[in-house]
Amino acid sequence: MWWTRLKALIVKELLAVLRDPRGRTILIGPPIVQLLVFSYAATLEVRNVDVMLLNRDSGYWGQELVQRIDGSPTFRQVIIAGTPATVRDAIDRQTVTAAIEIGADFSRKIEAGEPADLQVILDGRRSNASQIVSGYITQIVAALSAETPAGIRGGARSVTTVPRNWFNPNLIFQWFMVPNLIASIALLIGLIVTALSIARERELGTFDQLMVSPLRTHEILIGKLIPPMMIGLFHMTVYILAAIFIFGVPLRGSLLLLYGSSLFYLASVAGLGLFISALSMTQQQAILGAFLFMVPAMLLSGFATPIENMPDWLQPVTLINPLRYFLVIVKGIFLKDIPLMEVWHQTWPLCVIAVGTLSAASWLFRRRLE
């Protein structure tokens, strides 16, 4: 009998989401937008940058540096300036990200074996882009320096480093971003769909009917828990297929481990959503509560910036964030083929979070029933 009651509630929840125009919009719109925007546009790479050059040197090495900067595929446009005032105005107006000034004695000092200075002015308002552009310019200058007379003489005594990038040899950005999206889309869909469930019952006036039904409290929670997990698994499957067949991300690990750990991840996310839903009286409050949790969860998960770079007092807060653990699992299974024990080290915190959030939601739900 309990399975019949539970099955009826699961079917009701799925129909409530799929028949609601707003529910269908949430299920279809955000996943497509995230896949297109984040996979192609939200890149941490800095390309198509405009820079300005003020070349006071008429010698060979000054012209060679100008040609190398102009021929770099990183820079979209290299604007030649005539005066320092032009450089200052371009930086002030954010016309360019960086400006390079070559001194009048640049070539002469190089030929004499003396240090030649090069001034690079960066727009500090775009700190991340400026630092990356500075690195690009440094690489070009370093390659030029190795071909100067002093660089050739010291080449025999210099140490050469050859970097090799493991797991992503060509540094393809989609290999990093798309596995992250698999975890984030499950958080988005699972949290919003679950957060709306009880709040929707209150707005439609069916909450009282649910309370007087033969369903027990734990059966109601399970019935509210399973449909978002099913929807989350569906979206994860779509993203996994897109990652493999559209973006060419290699799947080096076990698909079974990925789906097994995702059940605990989705359970923890659904537990958070049920807790938010039990606190909310309207669907608007539920959506606001979901986004109130989701935005910090994305920022504190290591999605874009490593957790180790965060302040020491903030890092313990990330321990209660389920996205933090599942990101490690997804990227590890896709790119590294991490073993079972490593997956388990990241999965058991998800179990703790799921038990804690579902227990809190159950307690709050019972309290609301009293």
From TrEMBL:
The keyword Endoplasmic reticulum does not apply. The chain crosses the membrane at residues 172-199, 220-249, 255-279, 286-307, 347-365. Residues 134-368 form the ABC transmembrane type-2 domain. Its main location: membrane. It is a multi-pass membrane protein. GO terms for molecular function: ABC-type transporter activity. Keywords: Cell membrane, Membrane, Plasmid, Transmembrane, Transmembrane helix, Transport. It is found in: Cell membrane. GO terms for cellular component: plasma membrane. The keyword Cell membrane applies. Belongs to the ABC-2 integral membrane protein family. This is ABC transporter permease.
